[in-house]
Amino acid sequence: MKNLKTILKHSIVQVVVILIITSCTPDPITDIQSGAPQFNINTFEEKLINEIGTLSVGFSYVISLNGQWKRKGGMGMAQTSADRNIQMSENSRMNIASISKFVTTIAALKIIEEDPQIDLDDPIGSYLPNDWNPTNDVQEITFRQLMNHTSGLHINVNDGEDGQLFDNLKSVVQNTPVGSKSYDYVNINFAFFRVLIPKMINAGNLNDEMDYAIAYENYIQNQVLNPIGISGASVKQEDFDALLYRFPYDNSTGKNPGDWTLISGAGGWYMSAFQLANLIAYVWHSEVLISEEMRYQMNNSLLGLSESVDNGEHGFYQAKGGGLRYGGAPKKGLDCMFMNYPNGIQVVVLLNSTDAAFPLHPKLRDTFDESWE
Predict the structure, then answer these.
(1) What is the pTM of this model?
(2) Terminus of the chain with fewer CB atoms < 10 Å: N or C?
(3) What does the pLDDT look like over 166-180, one tens digit per residue?
(4) Which domains does the chain have, with CATH numbers?
């Protein structure tokens, strides 16, 4: 008869064998691999570079997943040898044109949420300068209607850079009829916030257009950007910011978009792709700037998100883009855009030349859709 020691030895071996077999047995659910296509972030990055980045003198990008950056970089030149010979990178600042509308949107939503006396659907009349004398119809335009371009201000002329000037805005509220509330993309809807935001925060000492402009910029820097670690953004071109070029490049010097202090709101902020990606991450993946409820309002009404597309293969893609064009064809200019996809991927792209990659939103849609394998 086997002694106790032998029996115990065999029992231990059996237990070990059972444990090994059990640990190697695949889970019948979690180990089954789906045959459906999977998103490939490497393919997405390669396509961005090869199919969009190669169509510009300088190109920068950031790809994030659920608020964390995963890929970033730049190619080409922020400034060519005709200027200061500066390489483009994800940290190169550039005028972000109409993406500035999104920056302005976040500032306005933050103020509205923090002030119980202001509602998103309040009329703007009491927040316009006291001596502007707006028509009754203009006074009844709401903050929401400005932010989603349903204000009824259908402007067909003077909506460019000079149309954003203080005196022109004053003239618009006094003389322009308010039409139907159908969607109509109008820059001055957001230029008004350069005037409205200082009144909304009771900035004080608002004696002229410069006072309003400085109060608007300071609020965004101090209350929106600085708290999330974005320093150095402004509404003025600096010496080492990206300049704007023709594409294909013709060896000429770049265009400097200049100082937008007095025409900002709808455009004019200078930020890098990495700074912009940081802002986007905080807006969609935290409540530091706006709450989940206010984010719902922004998404549901497309506040500051006028280039969103709903015909992607994987659902609804949120986006905001911008562009500037100067001179005769081929123009010196820029194109830029961010897009949020349903799987948590977000991308920012900045190009310091124009037209070759325009329009960007179908290209960013198709690049994403073609990156599933």
Answers:
(1) 0.90
(2) N
(3) 999 999 999 999 999
(4) 41-369 (3.40.710.10)
